Structure formats: structure tokens, C-alpha cells
Amino acid sequence: MAQLFEDTVLKFPVLIGDIGGTNARFAILTGPHADPKEFPIVQTADFATIDDAIQTSILDRTSLRPMSAVLAVAGPVEGDEIRLTNCPWVVRPKTFFGELGFSELIVLNDFEAQALAVVALGEPHMEKIGGGTGEALASRVVLGPGTGLGVAGLVHAVHTWIPVPGEGGHMDIGPRTERDYAVWPHIEQIEGRVSGEQLLSGRGLVNLYRAIARTDGKEAVLTTPAEVTAHALDKSDAIAVEAVEMFVTALGRTAGDLALVFMSKGGVFLTGGIAQKIIPALKTGAFRRAFEDKAPHSHLLSTMPVYVITHPLAALAGLAAFARTPALFGVETHGRSWSA
Ligand SMILES: Nc1ncnc2c1ncn2[C@@H]1O[C@H](COP(=O)(O)OP(=O)(O)OP(=O)(O)O)[C@@H](O)[C@H]1O
């Protein structure tokens, strides 16, 4: 049992929420041994505020009255106005106590919750990509393209698992091959640079597809990430096939870089809305080649296993585990918890 973090105790029922740029997923835990009661997934674009979404799609649809809330949001958690990076919602803790009736609130980063899910979920919810064997208590890293690119580390210390949140999705990524050098100038930039998220996200996949079309002087007819993956997987569009290959290679390079940073001999875990949908493309060998192509440490990378988390609500599973027994995890709540 952890000694450092045992102060946090939540009052049940607990509302747990995983709030990304596009999708918000909620469930209520009525007690430490109960299964979460899940609610239909909410599109963030359908509600002006998070408060509206919680009132309309949760509180108005159940007689359960949650006392506490643990929310995981896609953005840095700072101060009393927590903004999401890829959607206009702002979490204002005070409104949770007045209008919504909660008495305590904890806000985490969404990939911190994905890191908790790595601890909470077992092998049945993981699909392995290539070789390698994880060391039980070694560090791990979680990354996932979705609306944005989420990243978190997971380290074991003081007899507990500690998720390490960050904004690693906004690291730079540059060209590597001759083809990359031809395509890169056509990739949409953010303030003069190409960040991981500019490629490794839904809109990033479309960016890549358009950049390849522009490079070759061809027309970009596909417009959504789902169209690009569908036409790549059935090989019906050559530009989509190359876009997904470049996406998978960039994901392998980024995963390998993060594995070096965290020395993640415990494994690398791919999560988020897109990885689950492109598993065949992740298994062609291009991902693993890019992941391991890290001289002078290629051998080290070749020993590290990579998994796709296939659970449909992984972050909620992680939050549920935390809400049941916060003291089992090294989640620092200082500055990120509020009470009425
Ligand atoms: N079949 C598909 N192929 C590729 N991309 C897809 C597919 N289906 C959905 N997407 C894209 O996945 C993204 C949504 O991912 P996800 O469900 O992880 O959202 P999120 O949790 O709201 O995002 P985040 O946590 O990154 O802010 C959108 O950009 C969407 O267009």
C-alpha cells in the first residue's frame, strides 16, 4: 500500500469522465465494489459547456446523485479554469459545487487516466505489435492519436504506480527519408513547426494525405480520417495507403523516442480512437521498424513490447480503478482537487 498518497478518499457515488476533443465518456460508480454505470458517449461539439453536457446527458437521465467527480481532460490541468486543447469546453470547479451539486472534484489529464488503465486492464484488453517482453515493474509509456496526440509515462516507485502526465504530443517531428523531405513542406504547420499532433491525430492523418497529394500534384478527394483509413486498409486509394504508412511510421518513431525517454522496458501502450482502428496497418512491420530504428539503442528498443489497448473505454476503466482506491495509485491531487 502506498504511503504517500493515502489522504484522498472519495465520496460515492462518483462521476467519472474521460473528456477528449471530440468525445466525452461518462460513468457513475455507486460504490467501491460496483461496476460503473456507463452513459452514451457525448460529442463535445453538441454542448456549449461541460456543465450543460453533464446536466443534460447524465444528471437529467438518472436518479443517482453523484457526490464526487473525477474528470480526465485532454489538456494541461492548471488553475481554476481548465481549458481543453482541442475543444472550447472549460472546467470551472466552482460550478460543479453550486449548479451541479457535487461536493468534491478531481481533474486529471486524459492520458494520465489512460496510464491508470494500463495498470487496471490486463492482457485480454491488449493486442501485441511485434516482439519483446515487458519487465513487470519497469517504466511504461502510453501514447495515442485521437483528436490530438496524448502522451503519459507510468513509473513504479514506493510500491505504487505513478502516472506522469505531460504534453508530449506537441514535441517537434521532422523528416527522415528522402520522401519525407519532399512531403514535409506541404504539411500544415503550427507557428512555423510540425508537431507530433500535426501528423498523429485524426486531422493529422488528413494533413498527411493532403500533403502527399500536393507533393505528387494529385487531387485530394478524401476528407475525413475514417475515409483515409478505410481506403488505405482496403487498398482502394494509393494516396491513402501511403498516408497511413507514413502515419504508422511517424507513430513508430514517436513511440520509440518516448520509449527512450522513459526507458520503458515495461512496454509501450498505444491507445486513443485511431490505434484500435488501424491494427492491421500497425502489424505490417513498418511501425516496429521505425520504433526500433534508434541507433545506438536499436537492440534495447527491440526488447520492448508494444501493445494496442483494445478496451473501448480504457480511460474510464483507469479512472474507475483510481476512484475505488485512490491510495493504490500515486496520483498527485495537490492543486488538482477542489471541495465545496
Ligand atoms: N476509422 C477511423 N480512422 C481514423 N480516424 C478516425 C476513425 N474514426 C474516428 N477517427 C478520428 O479519431 C478522432 C477521435 O479520437 P478519440 O475517440 O480518441 O477522441 P477524443 O478522446 O475526443 O480525442 P483526444 O483525447 O485525442 O482529444 C477524430 O479525429 C476522428 O476523426
UniProtKB/TrEMBL annotation:
Protein EC: 2.7.1.2
What does the UniProt entry say about where the protein is found?
A: Cytoplasm
**Primary location:** cytoplasm
Q: Which residues bind ATP?
A: 17-22
Keyword annotations for this protein, in alphabetical order, are:
ATP-binding, Cytoplasm, Glycolysis, Kinase, Nucleotide-binding, Transferase
Which SUPFAM superfamilies does the annotation name?
Actin-like ATPase domain (SSF53067)
> Entry's Pfam families?
Glucokinase
Which Gene Ontology BP terms does the record give? glycolytic process
Q: Which domain of life is it from?
A: Bacteria
Gene Ontology terms, MF aspect:
ATP binding; D-glucose binding; glucokinase activity
What is the catalytic activity of this protein? D-glucose + ATP = D-glucose 6-phosphate + ADP + H(+)
Example of a GO cellular component annotation carried by this entry:
cytosol
Read off the InterPro entries from this record.
ATPase_NBD, Bacterial_glucokinase, Glucokinase
Query: What NCBIfam families does this protein map onto?
Result: glk, PRK00292.1-4
Tell me the protein family, please.
Answer: Belongs to the bacterial glucokinase family.
UniProt-recorded name of the protein: Glucokinase
**Gene, per the UniProt record:** glk
